[in-house]
Write the structure tokens for this entry.
Amino acid sequence: MKSLSLILRIVAIVAAVAAAGIYFAAQGKLAEKQTELEAAQSARQAVQAELETANNQVTSLESRVSEEREALAKAKRDLESMRSEMYTARQEVTRTQQQLNEAKNQIDGLNQTAKKLRSDLISSEQSLASASNEGELARLTERVKELESTNSTLKSDLEAERSASSARAATSSATGSTVGGTSTYSINTNAPAVQPASIGTSTTIASVSPENGLIVLNGASELGLTPGTEITLIQDLKALGKVQVIAIQDDLAVANILPGAKTRSMVAGATVNLLR
């Protein structure tokens, strides 16, 4: 009995020691598990933090992607608008080019018409100039005849007066009444006197442009010129040619030089007379 109790005690002690060992072993494993659990929680928190950061980054990326999409859509709309404007501009350029071509054709036609009209005008002016020269020559011829007739009449009156004076002198000498007497002689003042040919007022040439067929005369207000008036320029009793007044500006008369005029003799500053 004593050995049995001793054995039971020993078994109880061994069981107690085993239980203590198991307890302490369990405590160590629990601590390890606690440590592992805390580490796992820390890792979970870190992963969660990283996940939140990743979520924030994803949200930011989604926002940027949305902005980029909006910008891309706007760029597409602007591109379409630019394409539409370019197409419209091309149509405008094409239409403008067509209008320019039409205008060029019209200008060419007008130039041809102007050349033809210019040629017809020159021919007409030459015809008018020749006809005017013939008329002027006829007027000058008539004037010369009038002057010759007047000169002949004056010579006849002068001869008659000389004959009368000689007769009166002879009569006075024959009667011997010359002492204290006063003899008077009368000259026929009613005879027409020779008048110089009138070639109009004089003026000066302000400027000449033979290339453009234009001449500018000074003193337009004193000359009494009006647009459309044709006059002949005379210098040293020689005709320089005909001009036609086209405009009056201030005290200047602008005129076209008609065909047949001696433009080389028309010099700025020269004095000329006007024959209408």
About this structure: The longest strand covers residues 238-249.
